[in-house]
Amino acid sequence: SKVAVLISGTGTNLQALIEQVKKPSSSAEIVVVISNRPGVLGLKRASLAGIQTRVVDHKLYGSRSEFDSTIERVLEEFSVEIVCLAGFMRILTGAFVRKWNGKLLNIHPSLLPSFKGVHAQRQALQAGARVSGCTVHFVAEEVDAGAIIAQEAVPVLVSDTEDSLSERIKEAEHRAFPAALELVASGAVRLGDDGRIIWKTAE
Ligand code: GRF
């Protein structure tokens, strides 16, 4: 499957996906990396891997729908089939999410449905959680509420700060996102019409 990865920053999740699709067993090929911010490290990672990049700077668009339409045109240009949001810090319009329903994946740094929204790691610390982790899910119109594809748990240590917990969660993200992409790209997992995950059972 042809994959686009959308980023906004350092791109360590992008890097993990790049390493994954290099494997001969991979069902996925990253054909373009799109950033809403110019000059971020993730763009350099893509270039170093020989992947084409595009910058669609949200500040240059008068509306979300114009921004999303430009993203859409890039996805069509590269015949993209699956979109991975890897630290992409923009909320996409309902129209875009509906069009890409079942083909749009996001990574969130908590065990959803716990700790939705921003600063999920901080929320876990403030809640006194002893376990947190990351979730890869299909994007639905409700933020951080789409069907769960993969999760990995990590311990929360009493000595943890937001940074130390975020670092531990990120290590889990770099395993969970590649695993989730393979599940979707290989057809092992798909999204049912009822919004629930369907696992391809061994016939
Ligand atoms: C990750 O921690 C992810 O959970 C969150 O944004 C961060 C992106 O980091 N959505 P990177 O750009 O992949 O390093």
Automatic annotation (TrEMBL):
Species per Swiss-Prot/TrEMBL record: Synaphobranchus kaupii
Top-level lineage group: Eukaryota
Family per record: In the N-terminal section; belongs to the GARS family. In the central section; belongs to the AIR synthase family.
Function field: Trifunctional enzyme that catalyzes three distinct reactions as part of the 'de novo' inosine monophosphate biosynthetic pathway.
Subunit structure comment from the entry: Homodimer.
The protein, known as: Trifunctional purine biosynthetic protein adenosine-3
Lineage: Eukaryota, Metazoa, Chordata, Craniata, Vertebrata
